[in-house]
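Encode chain A's predicted structure.
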Amino acid sequence: MATVVGVLDRDLWSGNTDNIVIADPATRSLTWIPRGLWCPSLNQRVNRAFALGAVEGLIETLRERGFPCDHGLVLRRSATERAAIPISVEVPVEKKLDYWYPLHPTRPIHGPRKPVSFRPPSEHLSGARVHEWLGARIAIDLPSMEGLASDWQRVRRQQILLQILLAQHFDFGSAIADKDLIRISGGEALRELASIDASWRMQTFEDTLPETIGKKMVLVKWPKQLDASPGSPQLAVVVLAVGTPLKAVDAVRSLLAQVPPVEVVVMNSGSGMVELLARHGFEAPVIERAEKLTAGAARNAGIRATRAPYVAFLAADCRATRGWAKERIAAHRAGTTAVGSAMANENLHNPFAWASHLAAWSDRTPGTCSYDRRVFEAYGIFREDLPISEENAFNRRLPKSQRPKRNARIRTVRSHPTRFWPLIASQFRLGVHDACVEQECWRPPLSCGFAAWRSRTGHALGASRQVKRQYRTYVRLARPLIPIAVLAYCLGARYWQLNAQSRRRT
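Encoded structure for chain A:
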């Protein structure tokens, strides 16, 4: 038995039910349902269910979406405004919050509006400030396309205030005193709601993805996660190899040593990988292709060949450090869609390798990434026509809130050139590929002039000062090489741009 409570955003029965909470006495929990949740049977968001089908329609719609409800109570806006009049409380504020709010609470947010702010460590709420705290949802620092994302912040603020009011034994009876301002399925709803107290758990249904349907920005439920038998790996890792490199043995070895165990598949453009691993005492599933696959095509084949709910990728010249899998799984289980890593230099006693590492990786750049498998169903797979940077292209496709960020607890070790000319050649090729991808995917040409060289060099030199003391001798030797390596990168980018211009003229 559970009861849904809805609050209309207007003092009209035809308004949207923008606040929807399910009270479940069996689990002693209150679950907020996002107003933008898409309901295919209605071809509308869930906040239109009451206007189209009354209380019974709201209950039935939630059942169809997987939220069992037996009773319902919906209040018009004036009922909640009446209940809010005596509120006067202090609420904690962890960080500064800035929102847009309509000049009048019932006017559209995209009309005349004003900024409202809440500042740490706490705010006193009474009168209009109560409504601003409960209703503000468009964060000033978020693009308009992410308006739904700021709903999570609004819900969290509602939970904070309700928790305080319950702890103070606030009387909510005035909200239902006028029977003309409420719609209720029956007396059982009130009996269930009367049992709510400060010990109840408050949660939000966040298992959703943003999507645009019929020009409406909505939230859709994640596709059902793949069933996994008890004890089966939660993380699949696709090793990307070309030409059966010996380094792939170290990559596979580092993955087989992970705790908990992971599902490993090696994607190899070439032949002989099974024999190579067997000679070193390892056995892992291998998929080999005679033709050379792009990295995107190899990634996609690896996704199709694995079953674990989370999928990571590791180049054959990289190694996973201790805790690499455990930290990724923990981050995904906590709700993170995409998890990045920190990158570490394998050749710690070689200045050329340090120059390559510092020029290529910043302390803010997410390294090798892992993804919740459901993200591929929502946003597609990797592009197979790009020579490199297919991961960056995919990450740009994700909403900003779901893009991977560098996780310093997850470290991926990568090998780098250990001589001068291989260093220059690798940086030149990187510049060529980045310029190609930047133009192909996002159109503005990659900046590769003096300002870009100076910025990239300065950041690499700054990062060199953060290296551990025992390696600073080699890093000092690497510093004069960094400007040259970055110059090779910029020349490679410019070379590709000039060739592209020549091709367009012809």
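The first helix runs from residue 49 to 64.
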